[in-house]
Design goal:
Blueprint lengths: L1 E5 L6 H12 L5 E5 L7 H14 L4 E4 L8 H11 L17 H17 L9 E8 L5 E7 L18
Parallel strand pairs: 1-2, 2-3
Antiparallel strand pairs: 4-5
Amino acid sequence: MLFLFDARKRPSEETERVVERLASMKKTLMLALNKTDTVENKPTLLDRAQWFRDRATWKDIFFIAAREGEGLDGLKAALVAASPQGQWFYPEDTLTDLPMRLLASELTREQCFMSLQKKFPTRSPSRPRATRRAPTARSRSARSSSCRTSGRRPSSSAPRARC
């Protein structure tokens, strides 16, 4: 089991409770102190590691900077070594357990995001249609609802429409 901790922060009472609970589980524990590149006082890192070492038995302690990629090779190797070997749950050439139709739609959506360079809105049952000024000087927005079902036309401005 891997416990990831932000090395910039001091361990709190909550951290201590979590570590105590992990220690009581009698599992092999690994600790990864992340964001070590942002800690200017390096002896602080050793103090943090000692704090964790005093409260539980850790198989390995890793000092990593995930964003920069520092220390990740050793962590990956340790995780692979600790992972149990077993049979495949799916055929080797299967990409996912999702239906191919859903996978194709997600890949298409991802390509839209990448090509437009902005967030593409997800389909919403209610979209703004027009804005007009009310006599009370408050803005009102007309909304339209549409429900798609096979063989039916979308309904418009139906208050009881269920999607």
